[in-house]
Amino acid sequence: MTDATLHEAYDSALPGEAQFGDYLALLKPRVMSLVVFTALVGLIVAPGSMHPIEAFASVLFIAIGGGASGALNMWWDSDIDAVMKRTQGRPIPSGRVGRDEALAIGLALSGFSVVMLGLAANAAAAAGLAFTIFFYVVVYSMWLKRSTPQNIVIGGAAGAFPPMIGWIAATGTLSIEPVLMFLLIFMWTPPHFWALALFMRSDYDDAGVPMLTVTHGRRKTRAHILAYTLLLCPVALALAFSPVGGPATLATAILCNAWFVKGAVTLWRRDEEIAAADGYKAEKSVFRFSLLYTFAHFGALLVDAALRTGGLI
Amino acid sequence: MPINPTHPMHARRLSRNVGLGLVLAFFVALVFALTVVKVQRLGPIESPEQALQSAAPAGAGPAETTVSPDVMPAEDATR
Questions:
Q1: Interchain CB distance below 8 Å, A119 and B34
Q2: Is there a contact between A36 and A295 (Cβ–Cβ < 8 Å)?
Q3: Which of A19, A64, A101, A112 is the mutation pick for testing B, counting most B CBs within 10 A?
Q4: Most exposed of A69, A257, A298, B18 (fewest Cβ within 10 Å)?
C-alpha cells in the first residue's frame, strides 16, 4: 500500500471528520442551558452555604451529566433523527459523528459526571444525577418515547430533576421546595412539547413517534394542552408561597400563568383549518412563550433569594 | 505522496485537539481548586503526638502510650 492509497483510504473512511463543536452539539447545549440554570437556582435558593468553587463544580458536573444523557439519547434515536427535519442536522444523522463514538462519549461522561459530583458535593446528589441519566436514557428514550403517547408526560420528569439535584448538592437532603420546583418543570413539559408537535406535524408522523397528535388527534392534543396548563397554575402559586418564594415569584406566577392559560385557551378554540391558514401562528407563539415561562419562574426565585439575603423580605 | 504535517488531516484535527487540550487543562485546574477547598475545610493537620497531647486532660502532662498485654509479643507477656 502506497502513501497515496493510505490517503485515499483515510479520506474515504472519514468523509466528515468531527470537529470539537460537533462533540459539543452531541451534548445538546440548548437543553443543557435549562439544566444549568435550574440546577443553579436549586443550589442557590437552598438553605445553607456552599463554597463558590464547590457550587460551580456541582453545577458543571450536573450539566455534563445532562449532556451525557443527551449524547446517549442521540445514539439511541439516530434512526428517527435522520427522518425528522428538525433533527436531521444533528451530528449523527449528518454523518459527522459515528454512533459508536456517541455511545462511548455518553457512557464515559455519565460515569465521569456522577463520580465527580459525588466528590464535589455529596453521594446523594450523585445518586440523583445517576437516576436522572437512567430515567432519560432508559425509561424515556428506550421505552416510553416509541411506545406511548404519554411519553412526554412521564419522560418530562427527567428534565425536572436538575433543580432537585442542585438542592441536594447544597443541603444533602430533600424537602418540599425542590419538589415544587420539580413539579413546575414536570407539569410545564407536556404543553411545551405538544405545542411544538402541533406545528411540527409531519416530523413526528414521518418518524412514527406516537406523539399525542398522531395517536389521539390534534383536537384532543389541544384539550390536553389546556388541561396541563390549568394544572400548572396551582403548582406555580404553591412555589410562590413556599419558603423559597416571595413577591417576585408570586408576580411572575400570576402574570406568566395568566398569559399561558390565555394562549392555551386560544389553541383549544382553534381548529386545524384556522391554524393551517395562518401558519400555526398561535401555536408557535405559545411554544415560544413556554420557553420563557420556566426561565422567568426560576429567575424570579433568584430575585427573591437576593431580596431575602438583603433583608428586604 | 508523502505524509507530512501539512496534510489536511492535521488541519481538520487541530480544532479538536486544541479544544480537548483546553478542556483537560481546565479540568486539572478545577480538581486542584476543589482539593484546596476541601483540604482547607479540614483545618490544621496535627501530627500523631500533637493529637495525643490535645486529647489528654489539662494538666495531665505529656500523654504516654500504653500497650495492652494482649497485644504484646508472647515472650514479653510471660515475663
A1: yes
A2: no
A3: A19
A4: B18
Q: Are residues A50 and A169 in the same domain?
A: yes
Q: Which residue has the higher pLDDT, A217 or B74?
A: A217
Judged by CB atoms within 8 Å, which residues 14-53 of A form the interface with B?
17-21, 23, 51, 53
Q: Say if residue A27 is in the same domain as residue A84.
A: yes
* Position A37 in a domain: yes
CB contact under 8 A, A21 and B15: yes
B window 3-62, beta carbon within 8 A of A = 3, 7, 9, 12-13, 15-16, 18-20, 30, 33-34, 37, 41
Q: How confident is the model at residue B71 (pLDDT cuts 50, 70, 90)?
A: very low
Decide if B9 and A10 are in contact by the 8 Å CB cutoff.
yes
Distance CA B71, CA B65 (A): 13
Q: How many angstroms separate the CA atoms of A45 and A42, rounded? A: 6
Query: From the first residue on, what is the mean pLDDT of each consecutive set of 10 residues in chain A (313 residues)?
Result: 48 62 91 92 92 96 96 94 88 92 96 97 96 95 89 88 96 95 96 89 77 86 95 96 96 97 95 87 93 95 94 84
The answer to whether residue B78 scores a pLDDT higher than 80 is: no
Within-domain flag for A2: no
* Residue A19 to residue B30, Cβ atoms within 8 A: no
Residues in chain B within 8 Å Cβ distance of A2? 1
Which ipTM did the prediction report?
0.78
DSSP-based three-state secondary structure for A309:
helix
Q: How many domains does chain A have?
A: 2
Q: Are residues A104 and A210 in the same domain?
A: no
C-alpha to C-alpha distance for A291 and A295, rounded to whole angstroms: 7
What residues of chain A lie within 8 A of the CB of B7, using their CB?
Answer: 7
**Residue A120 and residue A54: Cα distance in Å, rounded?**
6
How many angstroms separate the CA atoms of A39 and A246, rounded?
A: 19
Q: Which residue of A has its CA nearest to B19?
A: A20
- Structural domain that includes position A149: 17-173
Q: Are residues A41 and A162 in the same domain?
A: yes
Q: What is the pLDDT of residue B15?
A: 81
Across the range B21-32, mean pLDDT stands at: 96
CA distances from A53 to A41, A57, A181, A249, A291 (A): 16, 6, 24, 27, 29
pLDDT confidence of residue A206: 78
